[in-house]
UniProtKB/TrEMBL annotation:
This is Redoxin domain-containing protein. One of its GO terms (molecular function) is isomerase activity. It comes from the Bacteria. PANTHER family: THIOL:DISULFIDE INTERCHANGE PROTEIN DSBE. It comes from Flavobacterium resistens. The lineage of its organism: Bacteria, Pseudomonadati, Bacteroidota, Flavobacteriia, Flavobacteriales.
Length: 122
């Protein structure tokens, strides 16, 4: 059990992904690099998986080096957290400020890093 409120940093990325999602896996090295660089400055990430099989999910976490908190109910598209965020496709990222308010969505690559740096500077 993970509480989003307890997991909030200065800036939090809620990252919806799955082991079977090619575009998600392609973006993971970028997210790993951002996390390694900015976690000590207040960035937190919570990965929410839309996987069905725990072994494939945990294998992808290990293989891609995703060292942050991960959650999944292993319910594929019926993932209740994804429903709360109205996720209809993945990858889907939501950037939250320290209060938990969504301040940006679905940024990738350099745009994601730039937004995180901007928010951490506040």
């Amino acid at each position: 059990m993970v509480s989003l409120k307890e997991s909030l940093g200065k800036v939090t990325i809620v990252d919806f992904w799955a082991s079977w999602c090619g575009p998600c896996r392609k973006e993971n090295p970028n997210v790993v690099a951002i996390y390694k660089e900015l976690h000590s400055k207040g960035l937190n990430i919570i990965g929410v998986s839309l996987d069905k099989e725990k072994s494939k999910w945990t294998e992808a976490i290990a293989k891609d080096g995703l060292t942050w908190t991960h959650v999944s109910n292993l319910k594929f598209w019926d993932e209740p957290i994804a429903a709360q965020y109205h996720v209809e496709s993945i990858p889907a990222t939501f950037i939250l400020d320290a209060s938990g308010k969504v301040v940006a969505q679905d940024l990738r690559g350099p745009e994601l890093k730039a937004k995180i740096i901007e928010l951490l500077a506040k």
